[in-house]
Amino acid sequence: MKNLITKINLTKMVILILAGVFFLNACSVPAQPTPDLDDAVDLAMQTLQAQFTQQAFETLVAQLTQAAQSSPSPDVEDTVNAVPDLTEMSLTETPLQPAGTPLPPTATPLPCNQVSFVKDITVVDGAIMAPGEGFKKTWQLSNVGSCTWTTDYDLVFVEALQ
To answer: Has residue 39 been placed in a domain?
Structure first.
């Protein structure tokens, strides 16, 4: 009988020690870092900026699509001599619109900034060149929009196969 009581007390003691070990181990779990409010605000602002940029791009695409469908194609012979010299082009920074005030899309009856490709002046498409060979590519373009080109205009690569 005494042996049975000792076994029960020993069992209770082991269970009590194991429960204490589990309890103390639970207290040592590393805490998750508290997110910084400034980081959350930065992420929210970046998200808004991306959404406004996409909205502006979609508006521009819609306007250009509408303008391209409503304007007649230019006569190449009439526009050959009105092409600016693009060999000495300089890059300028384009100012960004402030975020938070999206502009509503508006219909443009006659597109202001419209360009038409006329022909390759140098290095025709498909020309075979030696690896590493330098070249200067020149195109003839025509202003088919309603605005006059000034020195403030820049030709900028946007998207195509290179």
So the answer is: no
- Count of C-beta atoms within a 10 Å radius of residue 129: 9
Domain assignment of residue 138, yes or no? yes
Short-list 125, 121, 124, 116, CA closest to 82 = 116
**Structural domain of residue 153, as residue ranges?**
71-90+104-162
- Residue type at position 64: L
Q: What is the pTM assigned to this prediction?
A: 0.30
Calpha distance 107→63 (Å, rounded)? 7
Rounded CA separation 116/89 (Å): 18
Instruction: Name the domain count of the chain.
Output: 1
What single-letter amino acid sits at 71? S
Amino acid symbol at 70: S
Residue 60 is assigned to a structural domain of this protein: no
Q: Is residue 43 part of a domain?
A: no
Stretch among 1-10, 41-50, 68-77 having the lowest mean pLDDT: 68-77
- In terms of C-beta density within 10 A (0-12 exposed, 13-18 middle, 19 or more buried), how is residue 139 classed? middle
